[in-house]
């Protein structure tokens, strides 16, 4: 038999990866739309958006990571032909999402810790509070849709998710414009006019869109005959301790890992906001670009995780190992090309967001580092997702804590605010945070890829089944 090549793996990954990529770009376009529209309102609203979005993402992403444990568990059950158990996993993930929503909404409605961390001035803090109040209504349907998304991707049905994400974006654009810029109506209808809300308007628009997206997902689960073998017609039933416990054992370290990774970004925004509104505006543009190009390795990571989990569930561990390593090689090669493109095109990319020369000057040097950042980010993400397919989540959590919080965030704070003698001038300001964050991600990439290589070698030598519990 001919040994599978990297090209063979790419042919298997691509049909799953491209719908995930398109869908995730649609999701990211939510924040891109917000940034582009609010940037035209003014630096004050853009700073409020940066701080508020950082707070929301810190909360949502951590909770989302817990709910996404539905993916690896469902993927292994699906690969083994255990469809009814697969459907029960989705039901319990829905209960988990509802419970986590209570915690998340409380944090969004009382954001004082985030405001103090950012040292937000009163005029910015008020806008942040209004923005997060809108997002408190968006969080529950967003987490419920996360369960739907993780379940469908695990079943190799990313297109069903993509369609709803694209539809949500179509609705999001005009709603955001409506609430950000407002609308004036003639005298007889003046009482119905919508005032220009700026950044807070983005939160209201997102809440409406998330509710509609959740309702559409529920309708598809009830109507699509594909889901019949999973026996989902009886509603969500009752919470079951064993299944929720399995989700939490895998989901808590998964959520912790994702939370650490994302707060490496969001806490940077809080600290950079202390430097000034121009600095945080440049940082926000850079974050948006990095998040956009990150969608491609994220799509590859999702596809690889799905395929590896299914092969593990089916007992084909040799194929799982090959897919695991080939996905890492493929993602890293693609990321290298993307990073080079961002570096070369950083000036025109920045000017797509703003013509303000002060903000352009703040963003350009950050985008240069963002190119290197992306290369490391792609490698560590794919390795981490493959490990989750083997239901290994604690090791990535430890690696992230040391590399991203310790080296990245801690190192950046020390460079910028630590008063260290001899720090070069070019490491002052927001650039110091990006340099440290890039170094931290390279450490995470080497640590995660090294652990994955060791796991695959051990399996190849022993020819035994991979771990079936979180490690």
Notes on the structure:
The chain is globular. It has helices at residues 6-39, 43-67, 70-79, 83-109, 112-118, 122-154, 158-181, 199-223, 241-272, 277-313, 317-344, 346-353, 357-389, 394-417, 430-462. The protein is built from 15 helices and no strands. The longest helix has 37 residues, at 277-313. Residues 465-470 have low confidence and may be disordered. It is mostly helical and 471 residues long. The chain has one domain (6-462). This is MATE family efflux transporter. It comes from Piscinibacter koreensis.
Summarize the structure.
The chain has helices spanning 6-39, 43-67, 70-79, 83-109, 112-118, 122-154, 158-181, 199-223, 241-272, 277-313, 317-344, 346-353, 357-389, 394-417, 430-462. By secondary structure, it is mainly α. Helix 1 crosses helix 11 (317-344), helix 2 (43-67) runs antiparallel to helix 9 (241-272) and helix 11 packs antiparallel against helix 13 (357-389).
Question: Any chance you could write out the topology, listing elements then pairs?
Answer:
Elements: H1 6-39, H2 43-67, H3 70-79, H4 83-109, H5 112-118, H6 122-154, H7 158-181, H8 199-223, H9 241-272, H10 277-313, H11 317-344, H12 346-353, H13 357-389, H14 394-417, H15 430-462
Helix pairs in contact: 1-2, 1-7, 1-10, 1-11, 2-4, 2-6, 2-9, 2-10, 3-4, 3-6, 3-10, 4-6, 5-9, 6-8, 7-8, 9-10, 9-14, 9-15, 10-11, 10-13, 11-13, 11-15, 12-13, 13-15, 14-15
Protein name: MATE family efflux transporter
InterPro entries: MATE_fam (IPR002528), MATE_MdtK (IPR050222)
Keywords: Membrane, Transmembrane, Transmembrane helix, Transport
């Amino acid at each position: 038999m001919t040994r599978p090549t990297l090209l063979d793996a790419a042919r298997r990954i691509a049909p799953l990866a491209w719908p995930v990529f398109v869908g995730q770009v649609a999701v990211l376009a939510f924040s891109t739309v917000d940034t582009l529209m609010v940037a035209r309102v003014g630096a004050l609203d853009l700073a409020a958006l940066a701080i508020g979005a950082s707070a929301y993402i810190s909360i949502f992403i951590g909770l989302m990571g817990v709910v996404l444990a539905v993916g690896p568990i469902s993927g292994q059950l699906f690969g083994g032909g255990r469809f009814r158990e697969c459907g029960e996993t989705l039901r319990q993930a829905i209960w988990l999402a509802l419970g986590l929503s209570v915690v998340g909404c409380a944090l969004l409605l009382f954001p004082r810790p985030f405001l103090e961390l950012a040292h937000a001035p009163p005029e910015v803090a008020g806008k942040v509070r209004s923005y997060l109040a809108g997002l408190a209504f968006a969080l529950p349907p967003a987490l419920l849709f996360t369960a739907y998304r993780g379940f469908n991707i695990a079943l190799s049905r990313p297109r069903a998710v993509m369609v709803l994400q694209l539809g949500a974006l179509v609705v999001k654009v005009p709603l955001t414009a409506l609430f950000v810029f407002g609308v004036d109506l003639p005298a007889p209808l003046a009482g119905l006019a919508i005032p220009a809300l700026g950044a807070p308007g983005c939160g209201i628009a997102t809440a409406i869109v998330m509710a509609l997206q959740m309702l559409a997902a529920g309708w598809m689960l009830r109507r699509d005959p594909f889901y019949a073998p999973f026996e989902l017609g009886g509603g969500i039933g009752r919470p079951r301790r064993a299944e929720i416990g399995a989700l939490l054992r895998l989901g808590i370290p998964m959520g912790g890992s994702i939370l650490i990774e994302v707060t490496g970004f969001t806490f940077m925004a809080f600290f950079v906001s202390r430097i000034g509104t121009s600095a945080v505006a440049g940082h926000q543009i850079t974050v948006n670009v990095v998040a956009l190009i990150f969608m491609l390795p994220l799509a590859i990571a999702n596809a690889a995780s799905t395929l590896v989990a299914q092969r593990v569930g089916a007992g084909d561990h040799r194929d799982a190992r090959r897919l695991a390593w080939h996905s890492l090689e493929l993602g890293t090669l693609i990321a290298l090309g993307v990073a080079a493109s961002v570096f070369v095109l950083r000036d025109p990319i920045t000017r797509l967001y703003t013509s303000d020369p002060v903000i352009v000057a703040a963003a350009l040097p950050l985008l240069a580092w963002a190119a290197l950042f992306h290369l490391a980010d792609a490698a560590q993400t794919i390795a981490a997702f493959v490990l989750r397919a083997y239901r290994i989540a604690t090791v990535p959590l430890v690696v992230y804590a040391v590399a991203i919080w310790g080296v990245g965030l801690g190192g950046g704070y020390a460079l910028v605010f630590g008063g260290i003698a001899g720090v070069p001038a070019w490491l002052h300001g927001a650039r110091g945070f990006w340099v440290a964050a890039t170094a931290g991600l390279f450490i995470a990439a080497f640590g995660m890829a090294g652990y994955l290589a060791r796991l695959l070698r051990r399996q190849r030598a022993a020819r035994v089944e991979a771990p079936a519990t979180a490690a």
